[in-house]
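Long-time lurker, first post. I've been practising inverse folding by hand and with some scripts of my own, and I keep getting stuck on stretches where the structure tokens seem ambiguous. Below is the full token string for one chain I'm working on. Before anyone asks, I'm not after the true native sequence, just a reasonable design that respects the backbone. If someone could post their per-position residues I'd love to compare against what I wrote down in my notebook.
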């Protein structure tokens, strides 16, 4: 009988699905979560929920010496990390953009530059700059995409060497982009996205900040892609 469980882990800055052994103590779990969340072991308070939609926890993992199995941790449950000393941790530093100096440029000035994506598309006649061919129309035929919402997936875009994993949260047309294109909305396991499911003031799905992204279906592989365990290599040594 397997002693492994897959649970959701969430903190002020992270949200991901991870696999742990029921024999692992609460203290050992906190040590692993410190590297994932940036919250020190002594500042973590762990609450157990039956699911992410439950308003109140069913247990508090309040004994560091007890194993996870003692608290009845099971597949699909959620463990929420509360930071009781945020001033001494990294909490909020990855999602608070209020202190980030922003570079702003007008659309007119952006259009004049020759070192931008827009200039590249214009030079290479890509997208809306492509030359029309016989039979072209303003509306592209709708793409047929066999991707189900809720599926685990892996995303890799040609110009991005990093593979990203997460859950499909939206499949369909959007108010942005060309008509007829089917976009796939993904909630990444880590904060490597661009938004929280809102694009141009339109909400397509809900996820933590910087975990959401829209990609073309060709870049999405659906399958049994568990969250990448940053400790796997360390544990195999």
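-- Answer (accepted) --
I ran through it position by position. Result:
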């Amino acid at each position: 009988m397997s002693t492994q469980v897959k649970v959701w882990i969430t903190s002020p800055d992270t949200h991901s699905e991870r696999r742990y052994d029921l024999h692992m103590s609460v203290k050992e779990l906190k040590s692993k979560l410190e590297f994932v969340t940036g919250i020190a072991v002594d500042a973590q308070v762990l609450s157990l929920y039956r699911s992410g939609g439950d308003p109140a926890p069913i247990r508090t993992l309040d004994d560091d010496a007890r194993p996870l199995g003692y608290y009845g941790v099971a597949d699909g449950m959620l463990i929420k990390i509360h930071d009781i000393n945020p001033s001494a941790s990294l909490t909020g530093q990855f999602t608070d953009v209020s202190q980030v100096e922003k570079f702003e440029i007008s659309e007119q000035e952006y259009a004049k530059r020759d070192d931008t994506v827009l200039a590249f598309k214009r030079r290479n006649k890509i997208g809306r700059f492509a030359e029309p061919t016989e039979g072209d129309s303003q509306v592209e035929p709708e793409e047929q995409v066999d991707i189900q919402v809720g599926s685990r997936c892996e995303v890799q875009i040609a110009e991005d060497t990093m593979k990203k994993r997460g859950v499909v949260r939206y499949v369909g047309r959007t108010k942005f982009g060309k008509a007829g294109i089917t976009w796939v909305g993904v909630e990444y396991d880590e904060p490597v996205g661009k938004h929280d499911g809102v694009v141009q003031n339109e909400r397509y799905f809900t996820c933590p900040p910087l975990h959401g992204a829209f990609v073309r279906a060709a870049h999405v592989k659906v399958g049994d892609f568990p969250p990448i365990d940053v400790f796997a290599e360390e544990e195999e040594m």
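A couple of notes from the structure itself: Residues 233-237 have pLDDT under 50 and may be disordered. The two ends are 25 Å apart (CA to CA). Happy to go over any region you disagree with.
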